[in-house]
């Protein structure tokens, strides 16, 4: 069982930056592929970024809409995954969710709100 707690959301002006954190409980954090997803108002949840587990060297993957602006990283010793968001746009406004996935197991955090004002 893995529990995920996101933090770092808030209100920021367009062009600003935020750093989201997701702290995980439980063991074997390093074997999970970690991801960030978001759900804009009135829309479906979508992938933002993923970072692989210790087995694949932590390879990263990004949605086209955030490439070059967002960066995902992880600290296995602290059982934490981060999402650095730069050059934020109003269309980045959403609830951001942390996800952990390994084999058939998947876990979600409760989400953190990010609002970007124009």
In short:
The protein is mostly beta strands. 0% of the residues lie in helices and 53% in strands.
Could you please describe the fold and organization of this structure?
- The protein is an all-beta fold and 118 residues long.
- It has no helices and 11 strands.
- The protein is globular, with a radius of gyration of 14 Å.
- It starts with a strand and ends with a strand.
- The model has no long low-confidence stretch (mean pLDDT 96).
The number of helical elements comes to 0
Helix-strand string: EEEEEEEEEEE
Q: How many strand elements?
A: 11
**Biggest sheet architecture:** 7 strands, mixed
Low-confidence stretches: none
Structural class by secondary-structure content: mainly beta
Beta-strand fraction estimate:
over 45%
The whole-angstrom Rg is 14 Å
Percent helix, as a range, is under 10%
- Overall mean pLDDT: 96
The best one-word shape is globular
End-to-end C-alpha gap = 40 Å
How does the SSE layout of this entry go?
Elements: E1 4-7, E2 10-13, E3 18-24, E4 33-39, E5 46-51, E6 60-62, E7 70-75, E8 80-85, E9 94-102, E10 105-108, E11 112-117
Parallel strand pairs: 2-11
Antiparallel strand pairs: 1-3, 3-8, 4-5, 4-9, 5-6, 7-8, 9-10, 9-11
